[in-house]
Design a protein that fits this description.
This protein has one domain (27-173). It is 35% helix and 33% strand. It contains two helices and nine strands. Strand 1 (80-84) and strand 2 (87-90) form a beta hairpin.
């Protein structure tokens, strides 16, 4: 007779236990899904930041190379015709860099090339012999006092901004 009683007790989940299990599992799913989405967004933003940093660094390296190799005029001064806060012209009028419509352009002998896009800010600043800042705009003989040029480039893409800055010593003035 005990045999019949033993079979009448089944081991199964009650409705309350099943609902509690579903609530716990769905809560864990929501939390882990949020963490996965956050990790994916962080990875995406990090890759965009790395991409714009690499592009800005390449553009900066090119500009530094060009500015360092500026020739000197026969009187020994740098061959810079004009320097403005967002553009510079040198070697007469054959070379220039300028920010035009959020594009950083490098022009050589009349051929313009885009060095970098999505550039909301590009700043040039000239410094004299004693490392003192010169006027923001220099034209003609006023450019003779330039010994160093500071460059700042800001790039914005996909809600990420990267700004890099350097100061370039003119090699033509080192001799």
């Amino acid at each position: 007779m005990t045999h019949g009683l033993y079979h009448s007790r089944r081991s199964a989940f009650t409705l309350i236990e099943a609902i509690a299990t579903m609530v716990i599992l769905s809560t864990l799913g929501i939390v882990s899904g949020g963490m996965v989405m956050s990790a994916m967004q962080s990875y995406s933003q990090g890759s965009v930041r790395a991409e714009i940093h690499n592009e800005a660094s390449l553009a900066m390296e090119r500009l530094v190379r060009e500015i360092r190799s500026l020739p000197a005029k026969p009187d020994g001064n740098p061959d810079i015709s004009e320097l403005h806060p967002s553009s510079m012209i040198w070697t007469g009028t054959t070379h220039s860099i300028a920010l035009v419509n959020n594009q950083l352009l490098y022009t050589q002998s009349g051929t313009a090339r885009v060095l970098l896009s999505d550039v909301p800010g590009f700043t040039l600043r000239a410094y004299g012999v004693q490392n003192t800042p010169l006027a923001p705009t220099l034209i003609g003989d006023a450019c003779n006092d330039i010994r160093r040029i500071s460059l700042t480039i800001s790039v914005t893409r996909a809600n990420s901004t990267n700004t890099i800055q350097t100061r370039v010593f003119l090699r033509c003035m080192m001799y």
